Amino acid sequence: MTDLTGKTVLIVGGSRGIGAAAARRFAEAGAAVAVAARSAEACESVADAIGSAGGRSLAVTCDITKYREVEALIARAVDAFGGIDILVNNAGAIEPIGLLTKADPEDWARSIAINLTGAFNVLRAAVPAMMERPRPVVINVSSGAASTPREGWSAYCAGKAGLAMLTRSLALETEGSGLVVFGFRPGIVDTDMQVAIRASGMNPVSRIPRRDLLPVDDPARFLVWLAGGEADDLAGQEVDIRAPGLRERAGLDPRP
Ligand code: NAP
């Protein structure tokens, strides 16, 4: 099992879904965990559960579309834990779902503000602070949608494609610095996001039965493995949980 004792992790989008499951798994691996998202109560509940189990945790309310809030988040995490070793840049939103030619321009722009500009805001504020640490790790949570268009998801696909390019840009600009950067594609996972997708009835993903979705614990454990140093041969690129052989390498059941 990956041992992250003495490490600190910031999980942005840690209030529910993949991020909340990852918070629990990082804490079990020994890391101090800061959980951030817009909903204060949900972040506190994730952080409190870690605290009750004997771990170190912090909950911070933050809307990643507002750069000042992101700066304050990074300052809080650094202040509380002395620095950030691992960043899981996980916040994301699927809405608006609908045809490009009928999209509300404001809704479309809001999606980009979260999935792309928001993710940039987190990198911009966090990475300079993380460079103080001996082996900083950034994991941008991507999606198959970064490279496969899906009907009704133009904003989400464009945002995630942009994020994949941010991953590569950051890896290029920090080459040789010691920073380890990944894009991570978690598969199709049983979270609120998939509830919204099923409700939309749009494109084949909405028709995947819930029983066929991955449990949140699979990407959560995979994230801990990525951060732990055994996957650095995969750094600088998009890493898909579904790629042949990677579940086994990460210690997951070979077949989901
Ligand atoms: P989820 O359950 O909907 O959780 C999304 C998280 O992002 C929540 O913690 C949410 O918290 C946070 N968030 C959204 N907007 C935010 C904002 N403006 N500022 C701060 N936090 C914000 O979704 P999930 O399925 O766990 O998704 C996690 C990541 O995996 C996303 O990046 C998603 O695109 C990616 N992904 C998911 C799947 C899947 O099948 N589930 C597949 C591929 C990729 P608040 O609402 O409290 O702010």
Describe the secondary structure blueprint for this structure.
Layout: E1 8-12, H1 17-28, E2 32-37, H2 40-52, E3 57-61, H3 67-81, E4 86-89, H4 105-130, E5 137-141, H5 154-173, E6 180-185, H6 192-200, H7 217-227, E7 238-240, H8 246-249
Parallel strand pairs: 1-2, 1-4, 2-3, 4-5, 5-6, 6-7
Helix pairs in contact: 1-2, 1-7, 3-4, 4-5
The structure holds NADP nicotinamide-adenine-dinucleotide phosphate (NAP).
The site of NADP nicotinamide-adenine-dinucleotide phosphate has 30 residues, from helix 1, helix 4 and helix 6.
Q: Your description of this structure?
A:
- The chain has 8 helices and 7 strands, in the order βαβαβαβαβαβααβα.
- It is an alpha/beta fold.
- Strands 3-2-1-4-5-6-7 form a 7-stranded parallel sheet, with helices on both faces.
- Helix 4 links the parallel strand 4 and strand 5.
- The two termini are 19 Å apart.
- The model has no long low-confidence stretch (mean pLDDT 98).
- NADP nicotinamide-adenine-dinucleotide phosphate binds next to helix 1, helix 4 and helix 6.
